[in-house]
Fold:
Amino acid sequence: QLQLRESGGGLAQAGGSLRVSCAGSGIFQNLTIMAWYRQVPGKQRERVAIIVGGDTNYLESVKGRFTISRGNAKNTVNLQMDNLKPEDTAVYYCTAPFNSRVVWGPGTQVTVAS
Structure:
């Protein structure tokens, strides 16, 4: 059974950088698709970045500032966040489709102070 666990995040100043990572466990298969979403209280969860094989796609507002990449270990994915803005403050979730389900991690808080 696939489990996803985020790490990293925390507090940064506007203009600073943070990195969040996600590790998948419990399966032998390689995850082709992994993504990062974020959610602010009272708002819908939005997809920040996705990696499909080696191809990536980003939310328009983070293009040029965020980079999604696969980690060295199997089923790991990182999100490097540079030039952070206060509006990037949210809980960031790692997600991946597996066996006809969408699996989510518990999330990690990212707070950007102005």
The mean pLDDT is 97. The longest strand covers residues 90-98. The CA atoms of residues 2 and 98 lie 7 Å apart.
